[in-house]
Each structure stands twice: as C-alpha cells, then as structure tokens.
C-alpha cells in the first residue's frame, strides 16, 4: 500500500487501516509489519549507494591520454595515405591535361584549315564574280574568324585575320557597287535578280552592318531624284507642289515594287523602309514650309489643299501596305489645325442651306426627329474623327477648345434657323391642331436628341483632354449655354402642347361646366362636362384623342410621363378654379343687399354632384398612364400624384357639402379635413363664403364663436395644402378687407384678425399655373404680316395650313 512517490501522504493509508474501531486490536501486527517494511527500504538504499560508488570509481580510473594518442595516430596515417594516392595519380592528371590540349590544338588547326579554305574560295569566287557560290564560304569565313581573335597576338594569325578583314571590306564595296549598278540599270544590268538576291544580299546578310549599309544605299538611290527636285528653296518644293511630290513618290514606290522587288529579300522590307524614309524627309520639309508660308498672311486654301492632299496620300499608303504602316505626315499640320477647323465653316454653311430646304418630317417608320439633326452630328463625328487622326499629342488641348467653339457656333445656327422656327409664336392662331401637335412633338424630340448628343460630344472632348481640368471646365462652360437653349426649347414645346393645344380642348369642357344648370341639378348621374373631358383624354375605337396622339409620339417615355403629370395638374387646377368661379360671391362683400347666386342648400347639392363627377374624373385620370409603356416606378408615382390631387379636390368639396346647421357638425367636418382645430381665419371665411352663407353678420359671428371655443395647439394647415391656387384666397381676402360696413370691418379686424393684403396679380397666376382659358380665341394675324412670318420661318408653313 505504501507508495514510492515523493509526494506520498501516509495519512490517507492510516485512514483506511483504522477506518473501524475493531482495527485497533491489530495494532501490534501493524507495528511489526511497519518495522519490516522499514528494514527492507534501508537495505535497498544501501545497495543503491554501493552501485553508484563502483561507477564513480570506474570513471576516475579511465585513461583519456591514451585515447587522444590513438586519435592523433589515426590522423597521421590518413595524411600519409593521401600523399601516397596523390603521387600515384599525378601522372594521370598530366595525361588528361595533355589530352585536352591536343584536342583543342587539333580543333584549332581543323578550323584554321577550314577558315583558310573558305578565305581562298571566297577570294577566288569574288574575283570571278560568282557571288552566289561565294555566299557559303564567305559565311563560314566570317563566323570562324571571330573565334581566332584571341590569337591576334601571334604574328601569323594577326596577318591572316587582317587579310580576312580586307576581303570583307572588299566584299562590302563589291556589294555596294553591284547594288548601285542594279538600281541604275534595272533589267538591263548584267546582274540578274538571282545573283542580286541570292548572292549580293546573302553576302550582306552575314553582317548586320553590311545589311544596313546596303539598305541605306537603296533608300538614298531611290529617293535621290525626289531630294534633288523637291528642294524647299525651289518652286517645286513649295506647298503648291506638295501633290507632285506625293505623285513622284508613288511612281518611285510602284517602280521599285514592279522592277526591283525580285532583287531584294522580302524580309528586308525595302518598300516599308523606303516609305518611312520618305515620310521623315517630307515631314521635316513640311515643318519648314508651313512655318514659312503660314507665318504671315494665312492662306487657308493653301493650307487646306496641302492637308487634304496629305490625308489622301496617307490613306493611299495605309491601304497599299494593308494598314500595317502607321506613319504620319499630317502631324506637321497640328500647330495650324485651327485653320483647318475654321475652314469647316464653309462646309457647315453649305449643309445649313441644305437643311433649310429639306423637309423637317422624317420618313415613315422612323423616329419623329428632324433628319438633318442626325446628319449634323454625323458631320461632327466625321470632323472629330479626322481631328483625332491628325492629333497625336502636343497641341491637343488648344484644338479641343477650338473644336468646342466651332461645334457650339453651328449648334446655335441650327437652333436659330432650323428648330426655333418650328415653335409656334404665342400670338399666332392655330388653324390645324393635329399638324401643330405633330411638328411640336417633332421639335421636342429633336431638341432633346440634340441636348443629349451635345452631352456625348462634350464627354468625348473631355475624355480626350484626360486630366486637364482647366480645359475640361472650359469646354463644359462653352457647351452648357447651348445645351440649355435646346432644353428650353423642349420646355417651350411641352408648354405649347399643354397650354395652347390641350387647354384649348378643355375650353369646351369648362364651357359646358359653366352652362350647366347648377341651381336645379339632380344628383343622379355624371355631369355632361366630365364625360366630355373623358372623351378628350381617352382614345376611342375610331380615333385617337389629342392627348394620346401627343403622348405616344414622344421618343422618350420621360417626356410622356412628364406630360401626364402636367396634364393632371392642369385639369385639377382648372377644375378647382371653375368651382371657385361658380360659387364665389359677387361684389360688394359684407352687405345683405349683395345677393348670392346659390344658397347653402343649393351649394350642398352642387357639391354632392361635383363629388360624383370627381369619381369619374379620378377613373379617367387613372387611365392616362395606359397610353405609355408600363414602368412600375413611373406608373406608381403618377397614380400617387393623381390620388393626391383628387384628394385635395374632394377635401374642398366635402367642406362645401357639409351643412352649417348644426354648427357642431360643420365644425367636426372642418377639423377632420384641415387636421387642426386652430383654424386659419382667412381660409375659414373663404370656405364659408363659397358655401353660399349670406352676409348675415350675426350668423358669421355665431359660427365663428363655435370655432373660437376649441383649444388646440396643433399648427393649422397652410392654404397651399388645401387649395391649388392660393391667389384665389388672396383675391377674396383683398375684396373682403375693403368692406365699408363698420360692424363688418370690426368683426374682420378684431375677431377674425384679417389684415389687408395687396391685390394679387392674376395675370401672373395664369402664366405660372396652367389655369383654364378665358374663352377668348387667339388673335388673328393680318394677311400682310402672315406672309412675313412665313418668309422668316423656313419650311414651316404647316402652321398656317387650313385643316
């Protein structure tokens, strides 16, 4: 049970031994057993100590000196053995070195023999003018001679290498002589194409320097006449004769390709190098000529003729070499490109005259956009593409700004001469509504197309300017006013369609509204005017409505949705104006002698009928988005807009339909609609007047006292939240504040706290919001002035055609 662990705890064993009282009787046996265990442990300790002493004794008696002597002896023996082996293999190493030297010497002598034979054969063939046979040994001689340069310190080798060098020099001279003779005599030369190509050119190919010399010799010989004839100090070298220079080079190039192409290897690319050399030479001459001839009086015709000739020549070369050659001479014209840009004025002026005489309507099955607008921007793209092809750096910022000014100039011309005349003047009578709609939608689509393309044109120029922020801002500032003019034209066209086309159609609706016998109306069915409104807005099976014809012809749905929004506002505001016009009291205010057209009961009856009519109006307006391709976002927004406007109309009508007696009923209705008990006294008086309440001061005070008893801190709604046109309310307050009766004046100023307001400018209200027309027709234009307008508006006589 006793553990040998150093952490042994005897208490644990004692608790187990004496766990019971009976175990005390065996305590003597336990003591004996413990003594016995103690003796055993002591014996084991003594044995362990004896073993450790023996090991230590052995370690003390070990002789390390003998061990080191044995190691040194072994080391000496290994050194002796190594020296013996080295003596035995020394002769073998000498033999290996001798073998390598002999092999190298044999190789050297073999190469020397080959080199000597190649030299002799090359010299022999050169003297015999057998250049094709000479190619093989000459290549061998040239390649092997390089390996003997390390032996130049030996006299014989040095002498031999000098002879080889002289032969190579003579070979180069022979190649140059033969090349000159071939280029001079052509097919009449005694050297045929095979000798030249497989002999002379093959010899020149052995050395890069030789090849360059022969190629340069060819270029100099072929271009010699051009250099001599077209010197910049002579008349032949002037800008006027630039086309002759190009023609002459074409002749040289074609002559080389037809006569000498078989004489030279195709991989030498002599035609390309010849062209590149000509381009470099001509570019240097042009820089001098342009600086000299254009520094004084600018000759645009000469500049344009030279530039056009150069562009045509570059195009010819590009096609001839299958577009693999990208050299440019036209870059010399970069510093003078302003002249080129300004020269485009003549072509744009000619196009503008053409646009004036063209029909404005596109062909059938095409977008309703003036065709000339697309042609104008195609011309711009061509000019831009040409400019980009001319510019490769340096002066591009200046040219981009110059182009922006040029583009804007003709965009303004197009605006003034082509598009602006399509917008019907305000004082012109509309005789053919459908034609006006067609041309006005054409105007809107074209102006929008131009505005968007102007943005793209600006982005293209700014993209080429990269990170040049000052010039990017300058280009943007140049384009912005013109783009805004086109957007104003879009706005003007939409306003014309809304206020002079659709509003004119709605005149008949409001005329029916006015002619309705409201005093005796019966709330049974929809009124006639609202069904007429439905027929004007929604298409039938037999024909489209004016509204549908307008919306469906817009190229962008954005304008269709915008037009629907404006139509909704126009109808809602006009409807409210007709209600106010029908119910507002006649002047003067504040006197019982001023009779009301309708009493309170009649107004309630009218309001009930109008609430019924508004339901059909709401259904009609909800059908308007069906005329456009459905977009969930736009359709939901328009639906919300319709509901908001109709709800405002219904709030007004619910206030009108609510009876005055008892006062509490009207009070609760008023609070529920205005969302406040602390009402606006101006609006309260306005609604009470519309309800047909007579100018009985006692009645007004009684109703007002009910409102005054309420106590609410809620901010009252603003008039703008309750009616569409607050100027109607302002006009009412202006007339109300002018009452002459002292009692009414006291009531208004002390109880209602109504303060005098300036008379509203109703003409401004009519212009700022699409309120209904007064019913007067547009003024007729005298006959003699009509012809003047026709002359001013090119090809726009459609405004004056009889329907």
Explain what you see.
- Residues 7-359 form the Vps53 N-terminal domain.
- InterPro entries: Vps53, Vps53_C, Vps53_C_sf, Vps53_N.
- The protein is mainly α and 803 residues long.
- The protein has four domains: 10-57; 131-297, no CATH class; 334-487, Tetracycline Repressor, domain 2 (Orthogonal Bundle), CATH 1.10.357; 516-768, Tetracycline Repressor, domain 2 (Orthogonal Bundle).
- The chain has 28 helices and no strands.
- The chain has helices spanning 10-17, 27-61, 64-127, 131-145, 155-185, 193-205, 208-229, 242-260, 270-294, 300-320, 337-357, 371-390, 396-419, 433-465, 469-515, 528-537, 546-552, 557-583, 600-622, 632-657, 663-674, 681-690, 697-708, 719-722, 726-736, 742-751, 762-768, 783-792.
- α11 packs parallel to α13 (396-419) and α14 (433-465) packs antiparallel against α15 (469-515).
- The longest helix has 64 residues, at 64-127.
What characteristics describe this protein?
4 domains; flat; 28 helices; mainly alpha; 803 residues; Vps53_C; Tetracycline Repressor, domain 2; disordered C terminus
- Beta fraction: under 5%
Number of strands: 0
Number of helices: 28
User: Structurally, how many domains make up the residues?
Assistant: 4
Supply Rg: 55 Å
- Overall CATH architecture of the largest domain: Orthogonal Bundle
The chain-level mean pLDDT equals 82
Helix content: over 70%
Uncertain residue ranges: 763-803
Shape type:
flat
The CATH class assignment of the largest domain is Mainly Alpha
- SSE topology string: HHHHHHHHHHHHHHHHHHHHHHHHHHHH
Relevant CATH superfamily of the largest domain: Vacuolar protein sorting-associated protein 53, C-terminus
Provide the structure class.
Answer: mainly alpha
Gap from first CA to last CA: 130 Å
**Per CATH, what is the topology of the largest domain?**
Tetracycline Repressor, domain 2
> Could you describe the largest sheet, including whether it forms a barrel?
none
């Amino acid at each position: 049970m006793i553990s040998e662990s150093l952490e042994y705890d005897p208490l644990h064993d004692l608790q187990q031994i004496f766990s019971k009282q009976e175990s005390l009787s065996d305590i003597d046996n336990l003591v004996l057993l413990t003594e016995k265990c103690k003796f055993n442990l002591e014996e084991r300790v003594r044995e362990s100590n004896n073993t450790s002493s023996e090991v230590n004794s052995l370690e003390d008696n070990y002789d390390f000196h003998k061990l080191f002597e044995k190691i040194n002896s072994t080391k000496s023996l290994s050194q002796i053995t190594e020296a013996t082996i080295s003596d035995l293999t020394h002769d073998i190493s000498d033999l290996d070195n001798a073998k390598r030297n002999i092999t190298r010497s044999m190789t050297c002598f073999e190469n020397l023999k080959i080199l000597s034979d190649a030299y002799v054969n090359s010299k022999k063939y050169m003297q015999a003018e057998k250049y094709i046979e000479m190619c093989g040994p000459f290549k061998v001689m040239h390649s092997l001679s390089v390996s003997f340069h390390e032996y130049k310190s030996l006299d014989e080798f040095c002498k031999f290498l000098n002879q080889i060098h002289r032969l190579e020099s003579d070979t180069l001279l022979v190649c140059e002589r033969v090349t000159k003779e071939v280029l001079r005599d052509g097919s009449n030369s005694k050297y045929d194409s095979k000798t030249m190509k497989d002999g002379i050119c093959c010899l020149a190919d052995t050395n890069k320097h030789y090849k360059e010399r022969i190629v340069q010799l060819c270029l100099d010989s072929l271009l010699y006449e051009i250099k001599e004839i077209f010197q910049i100090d002579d008349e032949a070298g002037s800008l006027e004769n630039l086309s002759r220079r190009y023609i002459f080079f074409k002749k040289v190039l074609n002559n080389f390709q037809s006569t000498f192409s078989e004489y030279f290897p195709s991989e030498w690319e002599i035609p390309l190098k010849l062209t590149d050399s000509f381009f470099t030479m001509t570019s240097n001459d042009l820089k001098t000529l342009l600086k000299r001839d254009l520094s004084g009086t600018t000759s645009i015709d000469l500049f344009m003729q030279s530039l056009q000739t150069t562009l045509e020549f570059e195009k010819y070369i590009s096609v001839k070499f299958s577009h693999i050659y990208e050299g440019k001479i036209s870059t010399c014209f970069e510093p003078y490109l302003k002249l080129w840009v300004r020269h485009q004025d003549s072509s744009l002026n000619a196009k503008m005259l053409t646009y004036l005489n063209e029909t404005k309507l596109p062909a059938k099955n095409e977008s309703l956009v003036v065709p000339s607008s697309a042609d104008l921007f195609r011309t711009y793209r061509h000019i831009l593409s040409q400019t980009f092809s001319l510019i490769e750096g340096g002066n591009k910022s200046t040219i981009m700004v110059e182009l922006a000014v040029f583009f804007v100039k003709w965009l303004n011309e197009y605006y003034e001469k082509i598009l602006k005349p399509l917008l019907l003047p305000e004082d012109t009578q509309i005789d053919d509504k459908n034609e006006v709609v067609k041309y006005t939608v054409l105007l809107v689509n074209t102006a929008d197309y131009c505005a968007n393309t102007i943005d793209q044109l600006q982005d293209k120029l700014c993209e080429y300017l990269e990170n040049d922020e000052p010039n990017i801002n300058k280009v943007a500032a140049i384009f912005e006013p013109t783009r805004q003019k086109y957007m104003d034209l879009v706005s003007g066209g939409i306003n014309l369609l809304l206020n002079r086309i659709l509003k004119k159609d709605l005149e008949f609706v409001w005329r029916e509204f006015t002619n309705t016998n409201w005093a005796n109306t019966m709330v049974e069915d929809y009124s006639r005017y609202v069904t007429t409104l439905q027929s004007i807005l929604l298409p039938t099976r037999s024909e489209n409505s004016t509204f549908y014809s307008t919306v469906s012809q817009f190229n962008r749905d954005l304008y269709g949705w915008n037009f629907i929004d404006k139509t909704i506002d126009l109808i809602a505001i006009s409807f409210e104006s007709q209600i106010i016009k029908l119910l507002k009291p006649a002047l003067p205010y504040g006197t019982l002698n001023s009779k009301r057209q309708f009493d309170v009961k009649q107004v309630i009856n009218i309001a009930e009928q109008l609430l019924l009519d508004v339901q059909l109006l709401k259904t009609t307006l909800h059908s308007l988005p069906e005329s456009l391709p459905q977009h969930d976002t736009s359709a939901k927004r328009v639906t919300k807009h319709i509901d908001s406007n109709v709800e405002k109309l219904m709030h007004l009508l619910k206030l009108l339909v609510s009876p005055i007696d008892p006062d509490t009923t009207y009070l609760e209705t008023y609070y529920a609609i205005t969302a406040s008990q602390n009402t606006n006294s101006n609006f309260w008086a306005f609604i009470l007047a519309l309800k047909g309440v007579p100018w009985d001061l006692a009645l007004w005070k009684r109703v007002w006292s009910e409102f005054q008893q309420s106590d609410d801190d809620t901010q009252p709604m603003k008039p703008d939240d309750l009616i569409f046109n607050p100027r109607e309310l302002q006009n009412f307050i202006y007339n109300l504040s002018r009452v002459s009766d002292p009692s009414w004046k006291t009531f208004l100023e002390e109880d209602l706290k109504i303060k005098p307001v300036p008379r509203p400018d109703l003409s401004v209200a009519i212009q700022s919001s699409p309120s209904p027309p007064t019913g007067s027709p547009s003024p007729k234009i005298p006959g003699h002035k009509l012809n003047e307008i026709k002359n001013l508006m090119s090809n726009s006589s459609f405004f004056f055609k009889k329907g």
